[in-house]
């Protein structure tokens, strides 16, 4: 029963990432729907459209720090349920909005709910996971983001094919979005326990012991499956010792107080920069106009390519999550960033050729390189985006570290989503030169400052790296 509950808890908490994935693909897919564009209003400016797309990031930015505070005070479990409930209500209301302003407001509320779920669900997943599972399960958390994005892309493709000019072509996919937070809230309430690390931090030692014995006493130790309450007791002792070293309340300024915490802060910041500025963002949120610039203007073709892109990205993300413990985090980061650099250079060249002479082969090559950019991004950046910040922080600053990381991700995302349509309209493919330069910087940062955490099952073990 304990093993079953543990595995169900993994699946339920991963829904938090999938709900984020649904929104990312949804807003990209909706832009290909004539009825959706009519609902926003004809002649809407690129700046206003960018603001609408950035709405979820704007809502998240405002609530990540309160979410971290709540996760440490009320618990990871309560915070996840609160965020999921807000997202559930906002998803239903969004499906029945009229006009650009109302749609923008619901996206801001979705972002607020997402701030609470993202700040609490990923730490909860890592903190209840057994040491044997933690790294792989932590990597799969964001890799399965694409369950949501694939669902959104193909639901929208279906409504476009059958209801192209009907308002339900865009309202139905918005309503389907509510399924993910509904499953998350119901699953957490019914199955997922509280983090034993949170329980220990509040002096609830016996509750923490019961959770660890129930979830981890059955283990695979290489010679078969056996029960060992002593094994769970060892975990409890390690958690208690780690928290006993520093019981003071953590301030964000404490990230500056020691070399180890400054190193953690450096990683937290650069992971956020890599997530948003490696060059994937334009294709994630503005695939339709990018495909249009390559000569693919049919909405059904655009929707089909978006659906295929999500499937391809999920395959590469799962591959990266599966091998993260075999080849290590650093090798995975460098493979991803190096592949993106080569692909973005090739995409820029193909786009330039298409703009100059309208070459059909150059346009098709551009689409292929967009798929390669997404594939290399998903290989490492998707699975490590949450796993790595959770790994390099301690319990004392984990919620704050992830909140700061996600605050920066959403802030940079809001900037990207507002600026990208303006930049794409103004300079088109040349915009990718910015990301090419940044990728060179990111590769250097990983080489010289990202530590290896492969093979360290317990989160407390990673603390020794710093």
UniProtKB/TrEMBL annotation:
UniProt subcellular location: Membrane
GO molecular function, one term: carbohydrate:proton symporter activity
Bilayer-crossing regions: 7-27, 47-71, 78-96, 102-125, 137-157, 169-192, 265-287, 307-324, 331-349, 369-390, 402-419, 431-450
Mode of membrane association: Multi-pass membrane protein
Domain Major facilitator superfamily (MFS) profile: 9-454
Keywords per UniProt: Membrane, Transmembrane, Transmembrane helix, Transport
Protein name: MFS general substrate transporter
Native source organism of the sequence: Jaminaea rosea
């Amino acid at each position: 029963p304990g093993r079953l509950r543990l595995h169900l808890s993994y699946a339920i908490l991963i829904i938090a990432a999938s709900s984020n994935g649904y929104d990312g693909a949804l807003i990209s897919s909706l832009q290909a729907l004539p009825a959706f564009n009519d609902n926003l209003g004809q002649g809407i400016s690129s700046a206003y459209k960018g603001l609408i797309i950035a709405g979820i990031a704007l809502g998240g930015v405002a609530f990540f720090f309160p979410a971290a505070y709540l996760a440490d005070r009320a618990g990871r479990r309560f915070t996840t349920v609160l965020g999921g409930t807000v997202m559930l209500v906002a998803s239903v209301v969004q499906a029945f909005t009229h006009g650009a302003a109302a749609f923008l407001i619901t996206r801001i509320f979705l972002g607020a709910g997402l701030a609470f779920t993202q700040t609490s669900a990923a730490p909860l997943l890592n903190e209840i996971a057994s040491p044997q599972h933690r790294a792989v399960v932590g990597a799969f958390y964001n890799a399965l983001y694409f369950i949501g994005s694939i669902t959104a892309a193909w639901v929208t493709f279906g409504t476009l094919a059958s209801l192209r000019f009907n308002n339900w072509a865009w309202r139905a996919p918005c309503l389907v979005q509510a399924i993910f937070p509904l499953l998350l809230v119901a699953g957490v309430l019914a199955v997922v326990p509280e983090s034993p690390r949170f329980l220990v931090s509040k002096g609830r030692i016996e509750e923490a012991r019961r959770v660890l014995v129930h979830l981890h006493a059955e283990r695979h130790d290489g010679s078969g499956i056996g029960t060992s309450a002593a094994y769970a007791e060892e975990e409890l002792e390690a958690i208690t010792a780690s928290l006993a070293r520093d019981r003071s309340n953590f301030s964000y300024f404490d990230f500056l107080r020691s070399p180890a915490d400054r190193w953690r802060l450096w990683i937290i910041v650069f992971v956020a920069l890599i997530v948003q500025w490696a060059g994937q963002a334009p294709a994630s949120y503005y695939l339709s106009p990018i495909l249009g610039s390559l000569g693919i203007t049919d909405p059904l073709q655009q929707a089909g390519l978006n659906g295929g892109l999500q499937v391809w990205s999920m395959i590469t993300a799962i591959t990266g999550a599966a091998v993260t413990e075999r080849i290590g985090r650093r090798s995975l980061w460098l493979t991803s960033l190096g592949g993106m650099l080569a692909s973005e250079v090739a995409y820029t060249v193909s786009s330039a050729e298409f703009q100059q002479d309208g070459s059909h082969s150059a346009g098709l090559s551009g689409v292929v390189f967009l798929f390669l950019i997404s594939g290399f991004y998903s290989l490492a950046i998707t699975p490590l985006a949450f796993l790595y910040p959770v790994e390099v922080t301690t319990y004392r600053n984990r919620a704050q570290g992830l909140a700061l990381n996600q605050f920066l991700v959403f802030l940079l995302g809001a900037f990207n989503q507002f600026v990208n349509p303006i930049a794409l309209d103004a300079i088109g493919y040349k915009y990718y030169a910015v990301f090419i330069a940044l990728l060179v910087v990111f590769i250097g940062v990983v080489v010289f400052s990202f530590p290896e955490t492969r093979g360290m099952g317990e989160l407390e073990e990673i603390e020794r790296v710093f």
